[in-house]
From TrEMBL:
GO biological process: DNA-templated transcription
Official protein name in the record: RNA polymerase Rpb6
GO cellular component, as recorded: DNA-directed RNA polymerase complex
One Pfam family per UniProt: RNA_pol_Rpb6
Organism from which the protein derives: Neolewinella agarilytica
A single MF term (Gene Ontology): DNA binding
Amino acid sequence: MSDIKARAQGLSPDVAARDILNVVKDTENIYETLAIVSRRARQLAVDLKHELDQKLEEFAEVTDTIEEVVENKEQIEISKFYEKLPNPVLIAMREYLDDELYHRYNNARDEEEEV
């Protein structure tokens, strides 16, 4: 029981139950909403990974031996910062609920609805 409490204390405040009616207010379809949020989450994950790789690339050292391990405190701090960031899905859901995401349908889908 204490293990669950310890894990729950470290969770981001964005982890919470969501009102489904509020989540689907724009699309009126939960699956469509989740598709929008998941696409944005993938974009965020790729961007964060790219940004982290660029920052860590500055500290990259090429060594001939595998046995030699070099610890860089700045590199460790950067890694810890990115580990503490909320999950990209949580960020994307927050953006969606705050009406910060723009989404539209393809023309092919619009034509199907007219028929």
